[in-house]
UniProtKB/TrEMBL annotation:
Belongs to the arylamine N-acetyltransferase family. One of its GO terms (molecular function) is acetyltransferase activity. It comes from Mollisia scopiformis. It comes from the Eukaryota. InterPro entries: Arylamine_N-AcTrfase, Arylamine_NAT_domain_sf, Papain-like_cys_pep_sf. This is Cysteine proteinase.
Length: 218
């Protein structure tokens, strides 16, 4: 983006615990990273790595800004407000929310506009990787890609632990249930184009996330 003449910076985001099944209105610490980009005098949230309820296009930083989620009936919006954990009533931040078609708004994550340095990112990564109990990344396997029709985003394909689901325009379908690591390797290659090498395949051995059943074809 900078090579195209845009001014950009990265900042940390706190993911809402409700995203992974926790209580509503409560946030984790800095465990996600977003880009903030200035273009033609306006500031935008640019986030391509969050998941199925994150933005599918740049979202202008404007209080109450609502954007359609891909070519579906879902929506995302930004609010400038405080969160329940702030002690100071005047403290505010940007809160990203997502709403499925016909549903209620649900918090996704919140962020400020403070630029994060390489050292800040290092601290975030250390906590995320080393906190075996407090970081869900250490006990949940998750992989996601957007489902496209032409140039339009219409849904997602998500692997969570051993289950692969496709959600298109609100319709959910389970397309594979993996019982072993062999099954999961095949699912990653078939549905996400990810091919793991021998060292990568062996890296999960002995961890709580390892699938220890027999392959589907046995």
């Amino acid at each position: 983006m900078r090579s195209l003449g845009m001014r950009g910076k990265r900042t940390g985001a706190r993911v809402a615990l409700s995203v992974s099944g926790g209580p509503k209105g409560v946030y984790a610490g800095w465990n996600h990273l977003v880009n903030l980009v200035m273009f033609e005098g306006r500031r935008y949230l640019v986030d391509v790595g969050f998941g199925g309820n994150g933005p599918t296009a740049p979202l202008e930083l404007r209080d109450g800004n609502v954007m359609q989620w891909g070519s579906t009936g879902d929506e995302v919006r930004l609010l400038w407000k405080g969160i329940g954990e702030f002690e100071s009533p005047e403290e505010k931040c940007w809160v990203l929310e997502h709403r499925r078609e016909g549903g209620e708004w649900e918090e996704v994550y919140c962020f400020t506009e403070v630029e994060f340095t390489e050292a800040d990112v290092g601290v975030m990564n250390w906590k995320t990787a080393r906190d075996l109990r407090g970081s869900f990344f250490n006990h949940i396997i998750i992989c996601m890609r957007t489902e496209m029709e032409g140039e339009d985003v219409v849904g997602t394909v998500v692997l969570r632990d051993g289950v692969v689901k496709r959600v298109v325009r609100g319709e959910s379908q389970t397309i594979r249930v993996c019982k072993s690591e062999v099954d999961r390797w095949e699912a990653l290659e078939e549905h996400f184009g990810i091919v793991l090498g021998v060292q990568e395949r062996n890296g999960i051995k002995g961890m709580v996330t390892e699938l220890k059943g027999k392959p589907e074809d046995e």
